[in-house]
Design goal:
EC 4.2.1.51, about 350 residues, D-Maltodextrin-Binding Protein, domain 2, binds prephenic acid, 6-stranded mixed sheet, Chorismate Mutase Domain, subunit A
């Protein structure tokens, strides 16, 4: 190997040409897979297969490339291959610059057709109506808990969950002017305002906190009115030409949001087991003593672990609740199937929301 800069760069150029030829060979193979899928009428996007490809490579990676760098590279390669099979249209809580858009790009790769939506309801509507193949919505935040609207829509729409991803969420105070003085209102999504409550109380006491439909919408408003500030990502700051007055103003430095990918089960079948999956369901039980225990016993007996348990009022006026449950494993794995069957018998309402690969990065 040469030791001088021009010599090393010439080697890099040669390796890049080899890589290009190999990636094109891979793309041609994916195109051939696409032809078979077209004939069979089966869905192009197979999250469990993409997960297996990445995990398989991580297991044999000799380095020096780090395993955490490997995943985003192959995600993009597979997204580009997928785009040759068919364009993937993804609806998300927009406008451009939201964390939900970032989650969509991380998960599906940047070659998607972006369908920004003004609300979580619209993401579900666009995906149900077929104007998008997938929808991406926030489902829970490590500081603020469940995203209520998303949970309610799981109940009332036929969409299923086909994937999940989580993001470290950093909020920044953004403004046209490079000073804190004279801010009349801070505009952001209610969740972001809540996540930055302490910082706002300390540094901008008495300033109005104005809830808007998304953080990027707040940034768009702040870009038009110098008296307004926004709480949003640095991507939104770039998108709308705003200054970052204070970076990372969220109360919890490890603030994370979990997003899920939803799809219409008529057009996108349930992902097959990947080896490390999550099963999501929503149930209701009769309002009687011991009903909760009856719900948990079948899980214990089948050896299934629960990773999330969340309740939402059923809005019946009777103090009845829906329970949102995440289980470890895939609904097609025998012990999970057994637990689901036993659970169903104890529930007055039972809806399987999906079985999908766990987010492993
Ligand atoms: O294996 C497939 O089913 C493919 O379509 C190929 C491929 C890939 O690029 O590896 C692309 C899209 C799918 O989501 C999964 C994998």
């Amino acid at each position: 190997m040469p030791q001088d800069l021009p010599g090393l760069r010439a080697h890099i150029d040669a390796v890049d040409r080899e890589l290009l030829a190999l990636i094109n060979r891979r793309a041609a193979l994916a195109q051939a897979v696409g032809e078979i899928k077209k004939k069979e009428g089966s869905p192009v996007f197979r999250p469990e297969r993409e997960q297996q490809v990445i995990e398989g490579l991580k297991a044999v990676n000799p380095g020096p490339l780090k395993n955490e760098s490997l995943a985003p590279i192959w995600r993009e390669v597979m997204a580009a291959c997928r785009a040759l099979e068919t364009p993937t249209r993804v609806a998300f809580l927009g406008p451009a610059g939201t964390f939900t858009e970032e989650a969509a790009l991380n998960y599906f790769g940047s070659t998607i057709v972006r369908v920004p939506c003004a609300s979580i309801d619209e993401v579900f509507r666009a995906t149900s109506a077929g104007s998008a193949d997938f929808g991406v919505v926030p489902v829970e935040n490590s500081t603020e808990g469940a995203v209520a609207r998303t949970m309610d829509l799981f109940l009332t729409t036929p969409l299923t969950i086909v994937g999940e991803t989580s993001l470290l969420v950093r909020h920044n105070l953004l403004r046209l002017r490079e000073e804190l003085d004279g801010i009349q209102a801070v505009c952001a999504h209610p969740q972001a305002l809540a996540q930055c409550h302490e910082w706002l109380s300390r540094h901008l006491p008495g300033v109005e906190r104005r809830p808007v439909s998304s953080n990027a919408e707040g940034a768009r408003m702040a870009a038009q009115d110098p008296s307004l500030a926004a709480l949003a990502s640095t991507r939104a700051a770039n998108e709308f030409g705003l200054h970052v007055l204070a970076p990372g103003v969220q109360d919890d430095p490890l603030n994370r949001t979990r997003f899920v990918m939803v799809a219409d089960p008529q057009r996108q079948s349930l992902p097959a087991p990947s080896g490390m999956d999550c099963t999501s369901l929503v149930v209701a039980v009769a309002n009687r003593p011991g009903a909760m225990v009856d719900l948990l016993v079948p899980l214990k007996e089948a050896g299934v672990s629960m990773s999330r348990f969340e309740s939402r009022p059923a809005r019946s006026g009777q103090w009845e609740y829906y329970f949102y449950i995440d289980l470890q494993g895939h609904p097609e794995e025998p012990h999970v199937a057994q637990a689901l069957q036993a659970l169903r018998a104890h529930c007055s309402f039972f809806k399987l929301l999906g079985g999908y690969p766990l987010d492993r990065h």
